[in-house]
């Protein structure tokens, strides 16, 4: 379960850190990106992204799947979609959906955002919405996982590429959690798809509500953050994660950018 959670959150954060829009919202942008996940030297997953970003609106699709060694042990993939608007206060989702397939089981989760309140539906219905379930208060003022750190991207862009601070409230259709952010300076890195200096940012996963007893993350899973290396692209007017890593379990999971196309 930890590997699937890491891949899923990494996929969300990859979308969420696609180019920041605080600097220039006049030019539409299309993004195609491909990431590979590995444990030690073994490939275990893949994350792909397609996004269309207009001056006032955004829409994107992400695909997360087990691959390589992990595919021998689990049949898993998730397709996510989001639509939203860029408001004065930041990106605001209007509709989010993800379809999760594990083995022969499939569940579709949709979230509509109305008056700052997230309204979820699930097909088939969950047998439990968690203990405790996410209340109306928990679901007020939240964003979906794919929109979550567009807020951070805008902060990074507006500040010239340095801050990674604060806490972002996220609701994924059942589980409510915070991403607590901490800056770790800069570092020079190299991946197959990018090389150069990158901002290092830690995201701590803080569960709040909507978890079944057996699904609550253990202290060992939440003790280590998901570390992100966020790099400037497009002459520094946009920022994109080029590497993500967590030490939690399996000896560490690393996700790296392999291919990027901007139009």
Any overview of this molecule?
The chain is mainly beta. Helix content is 11%, strand content 52%. It has helices spanning 2-16, 150-158, 219-223; strands at residues 29-39, 42-53, 57-66, 76-87, 90-102, 105-114, 117-123, 166-171, 176-190, 195-209, 226-233, 238-246, 253-262. A 13-stranded antiparallel beta sheet has the order 7-6-5-4-3-2-1-13-12-11-10-9-8, covered by helices on one side. It is globular and about 45 Å long. Mean pLDDT is 80; it is low at 17-23 and 69-73.
List the SSEs and their pairings.
Elements: H1 2-16, E1 29-39, E2 42-53, E3 57-66, E4 76-87, E5 90-102, E6 105-114, E7 117-123, H2 150-158, E8 166-171, E9 176-190, E10 195-209, H3 219-223, E11 226-233, E12 238-246, E13 253-262
Antiparallel strand pairs: 1-2, 1-13, 2-3, 3-4, 4-5, 5-6, 6-7, 8-9, 9-10, 10-11, 11-12, 12-13
């Amino acid at each position: 379960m930890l590997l699937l959670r890491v891949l899923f959150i990494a996929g969300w954060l990859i979308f969420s850190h696609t180019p920041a829009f605080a600097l220039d919202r006049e030019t539409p942008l299309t993004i195609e990106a491909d990431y590979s996940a590995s444990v030690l030297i073994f490939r275990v997953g893949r994350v792909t992204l397609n996004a269309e970003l207009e001056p006032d609106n955004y829409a994107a699709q992400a695909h997360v799947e087990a691959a390589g060694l992990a595919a021998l042990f689990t049949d898993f993939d998730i397709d996510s979609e989001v639509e939203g608007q860029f408001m004065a206060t930041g990106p605001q989702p209007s509709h989010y959906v993800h379809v999760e397939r594990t083995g022969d089981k499939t569940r579709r989760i949709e979230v509509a955002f109305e008056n700052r309140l997230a309204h979820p539906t699930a097909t088939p219905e969950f047998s439990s919405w968690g203990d405790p379930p996410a209340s109306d208060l928990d679901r007020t003022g939240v964003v979906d996982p794919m929109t979550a750190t567009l807020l951070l991207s805008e902060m990074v862009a507006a500040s010239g590429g340095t801050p990674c601070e604060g806490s972002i409230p996220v609701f994924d259709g059942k589980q409510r959690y915070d991403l607590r952010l901490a800056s770790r300076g800069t570092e020079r890195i190299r991946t197959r798809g990018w090389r150069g200096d990158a901002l290092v940012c830690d995201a701590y996963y803080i569960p709040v509500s909507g978890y079944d007893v057996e699904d609550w993350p253990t202290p060992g899973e939440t003790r280590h953050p998901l570390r992100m290396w966020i790099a400037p692209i497009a002459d520094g007017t946009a920022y994109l994660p080029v590497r993500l890593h967590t030490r939690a379990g399996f000896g560490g999971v690393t996700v790296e950018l392999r291919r990027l196309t901007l139009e």
